[in-house]
Design brief:
The chain is mainly α. Helices cover 68% and strands 1% of the residues. The chain has a two-stranded antiparallel sheet with strand order 1-2.
Length: 502
Amino acid sequence: MESDKSSGRRNTACPGCKLWHVPRTDPPARPTSVPESAGIFHRGYLLVTLGACALVFLAAFESLAVTTIMPLVSRELDGASLYALAFAGPLATGVIGMVAAGSWSDRKGPVAPLLAAVGMFVVGLLIAGTAGTMPVLVSGRLVQGLGGGGLTVALYVVIARVYPPVLHPKIFAAFSAAWVIPSLVGPFAAGAVAQLAGWQWVFLGVVGLVVPALLLTAPALRGLNGSPGAAAGDPPANVETAAGGRAPGGLAKLALAALAALAVLGLNLSAAVPGAGAVLAAAAVAVALLAVRPLMPRGTLTARRGLPSVILTRGLASAAFFGAEVYLPYLLVERYAFAPTFAGLTLTGGAIAWAAASAIQGRLGTRLEHRKAVRIGSALVFGAVVLAFVTTVLAWPAAVAIAGWIFAGGGMGLMYPRLSVMTLALSTKDTEGFNSSAMSISDSLGGALALAGTGIVFAAFATATPTASFAGVFALTAVIGLAAVAVAPRVAVVPAAVRTPA
């Protein structure tokens, strides 16, 4: 058994979505009428389960849809130079949202941050959906990212406080399942909407669905405000950060998050500075990493064994996967003359494999330990990116890259639920927000830095051969994927097992 040294208690959990147990100092804020043997679809949890899954569903649809239509949007708005920023920007501003939501949730509970995050997400969709130029669309994406980042962390805290620990893997599995329908129809539907009604409706159409999804969670959100943890404005006393010492307070954390976001945005724009682009890019990466050190558990940036490596692996996997994925539809449109509708099939295959692998790892339970799942998953992502690189360089049929991305999705489906399980299992009641925020920051910042880097590489090789830009992108993300493979064996092992009720 592994001990939680900061709290003097032991955290235990089984690997996967079938088995789970996270002791906590206080019981979750679930309805008193719900029996201990209840599942996530028991009437006491039904509305919050449906509402939370609906929010995940809409976020999944938006993610897949935007990736599908962005080549068309970039062409129509003459925004090729801002293509990478349209993806990296919301991930960067999402870091600010994550930090704000995590700190806010630890002090006051997750209700207010969740409402604020959904509001920002909707405003961003409205700006992007009414944009007439690429800079305006990117600004909408920045606001959307701010809300999306806060939404992610707030939902994690809601899960931790509404559901008992034994049900955490099941709700995470439900979240993965919420990607299935968007992965089946999202890219195709987005391409069809863009071609028939205009790409603007891919953004605007989601707005009317977000509010009803949020309302479903309302009954469960009552009573979640307030926290037994840190006092308002104070960080949790038992958090040791990557920079050493206690976690910074609320305003300091927001300032650091804003600095990291600005560094990522600067990295995206560094290629436009003649003669000094490389120096500015290196400086931007250094600033971003230094800024997030106090927002991470100690040892994260040095791959310390345990929770720090869980957080780091999440970031590296996100960087490799999403850094490559956003260029696959672009490759199919530009190199293989695919229509946007069919270019999205790459995303469909990967997303279906993600959901299927997530379900499989849940059924395997203790037969597949956490560390092994993460090692296999990271290797699959790395292999798929390498295959995309080889396909580009050797001009293999597009079907090879599309099929290869199925393995990438499968790898993410294997390791993402396990990394989420381990993060909450190694958290105390008053560090749930900090650690969930750290995981989400690593996730988003990793992707943002990778997208910024791939944008620089893509622009640098734009005047070379037609395939050089895409080959450079996949080469860079393959290197990042290799780093994930190297760190994966150092993730925490969460032992013990309490069987989830049927």
